[in-house]
Structure of protein-serine/threonine phosphatase:
Amino acid sequence: MLESCYKPLERCFGGGGGDGLLWNMDLKPHASGEYSVAVVQANSLLEDQGQVLTSPSATYIGVYDGHGGPEASRFINSHLFRYLEKFADERGGLSKDVIAKAFDATETEFLHLVKESWLDRPQIVSVGSCCLLGVISNGTLFVANLGDSRAVLGRQASGGGRMVHSSTVVAERLSTDHNVGVEEVRKEVKALHPDDAHIVVYTHGVWRIKGIIQVSRSIGDVYLKKPEYNRNPLFQQYASPFPLKRAVMSAEPSIITRKLRPQDLFLIFASDGLWEQLSDEDAVEIVHKNPRNGIAKRLIRAAIEVAARKREMRYDDIKRIEKGVRRHFHDDITVVVIYLDGGRGKCKSHSHDDITGDTTAPLDIFTFNSDDNSHLSP
């Protein structure tokens, strides 16, 4: 049962190497390998959330990239895994239908929260989150996604039906980017709204739905799904300049299943803050060529170094910039790296207790690191 795996946040983390807005966790075991997690904060309030839940029978990975505020990503962090457990128990195991039902329940419950709180907090109608889920169970990988966070597999290359040299690793994208910057997604959105000339607008060098948002699927963003919130005078500062006739975003996830194979080496789950700076191939190469310990932090550092070079700066310059201002240089970034050692003789032997646990990134890195270092103050 997943319920028994929920535990208080363990303080087994490494520092950010002098970066007060970076958090990372030491390498930990899961049922078929090890995993690494890291988060860097750029916004005044951290809008990303990430979690890994492990048990002897399954590993669950969640990356939730919020926008407009942290409420939606925090809500998913508290509800999605529990809905997965509930529906999997009811239906006798995990399936695409169970995952879709868990996403729908999370969306419905967040909408209920918005309806209850909008008078006191009207801005909550404009809060949303991308939602990336991975589950490994019985040798099968499930990946479900809303938005433009991404799951990428690193696997040994094969040719002519045989494995090629073990140092050759290729990147395979497992998730679908729901972002209208992608031409296929733009066409999909336009096809769903043939009577709306302003459904996708090119503004400030970026394609956006109704001139507002780049992603086409999310949890939340109620003002772009429920026209009554868009029309209400209370919400005009959050509303589209083009009136809504119907929902222009959805919460229907793209879901894939894949049997894991011996050549599958590792998985990278990350919010789009990473993929804005690194290609799938670059990220896979970094993981493949570097030591495991601290690998998620290494990916974040590589992404920030790319962002710094774009401004003719160095990483050391970026890490001195305070939260909020730092968002002008890069986004919040959450990274989870999952090593897949089962079947290759690399998987270490761990006790039941070792591989049963819940790792959740702090709600706010700046606050967490400040509290963690408070004992050093005079």
About this structure: The first helix runs from residue 71 to 91. The chain is about 25% helix and 25% strand. The first strand starts at residue 13 and ends at 14.
